[in-house]
Amino acid sequence: MGRATMRWLQPALLLVVAARLATVAVVVVRGEPQVPCYFVFGDSLVDNGNNNDIASLARANYPPYGIDFAGGPTGRFSNGLTTVDAISRLLGFDDYIPAYAGASGDQLLTGVNFASAAAGIRDETGQQLGQRISFGGQLQNYQAAVQQLVSILGDEDSAANHLSQCIFTVGMGSNDYLNNYFMPAVYPTSQQYTPAQYADVLIGQYSQQLRTLYSYGARKVALMSVGQVGCSPNELAQHSADGATCVPEINGAIDIFNRALIALVDQFNALPGAHFTYINVYGIFEDILRDPGSHGLTVTNRGCCGVGRNNGQVTCLPFQTPCANRNEYLFWDAFHPTEAANVLVGRRAYSAAQPSDVHPVDLRSLAQL
């Protein structure tokens, strides 16, 4: 083949290569999210900055929090992603769901995060840590957001139709145990109620609050179970003789609450148009603790960043140097999981690895309903 022919072929070849590259580019472009919007309610496990500008000890907008997050310290109580960050990516959102405190009106259309560190189902929960936005307060913020959506979309029917397609995740209850029931020096609840009675009281209040969420348009709602608080470095440091065995008194009380939460999901699914589901974070953590190595983890009883026994007596301090192998730790600080653990939980919430992970459906299925 002559040089003239080669010169003629080169542009043609370039066109073919360009066309192939364009095809590849189309393949990797992210599609539309599986749902138009995602709203988040919860506590420090998923707070991403709502506590930054309030008078609270429950804040994480300082290094080394966010050491592995592109935006640095944002208020997330982790080295990197939270569970809902992982879930938002799996649902197909290009950006993480923003904190309500700094969100614009337009961002309400795709969802915001109302979570607040130290928040509980009960209004008094976490009060020793200063200001926080209880679940009741988060619902008030959501109701204000719905009114804004009505204005943006033009009428209530349009807003209701829009919200009916959104996914809502609600993770409350951890602080009602950690920063209430099992803190008898500050709160009287453990003297007033047995664990079973306390679970009943919590579920009764939670049910009323979730009914408000439903009445303001939420239809696809995932309730996150309370996790294994009795396995956190803080509780191990205080109450575990060997520093490794989880505290049965705490986990036993939480198990009662979680079982009642499953029954609550079944009750809500009797309501018109309701698609509630239960995400078994407790069970997923139990599975990880049973065989951490198979999940890529080597340290499950110490915080990557913290002070004292189990790195859990005092939580991660400003500018403290954390562990280097963060992807091998289950816990980032005295209470909160690492990004590695959060991603594991987020994946199983989105796509159940075992039937016990969810009841009745995972988030991927919920998005399609």
From TrEMBL:
Q: Name one GO molecular function term.
A: hydrolase activity, acting on ester bonds
**What's this protein's family per the entry?**
Belongs to the 'GDSL' lipolytic enzyme family.
Q: Where is the signal peptide?
A: 1-24
Q: State its location(s).
A: Secreted
Query: Which keywords belong to this entry?
Result: Hydrolase, Lipid degradation, Lipid metabolism, Secreted, Signal
One Pfam family, short name please?
Lipase_GDSL
Give yes or no: UniProt keyword Calcium: no
Q: Which PANTHER family match?
A: GDSL-LIKE LIPASE/ACYLHYDROLASE-RELATED, OS01G0748500 PROTEIN
State the InterPro entries in the record: GDSL, GDSL_esterase/lipase, SGNH_hydro_sf, SGNH_plant_lipase-like
BP-aspect Gene Ontology terms: lipid catabolic process
Per the record, its GO cellular-component terms are:
extracellular region
**What's the name of the protein?**
GDSL esterase/lipase
Q: Which domain of life is it from?
A: Eukaryota
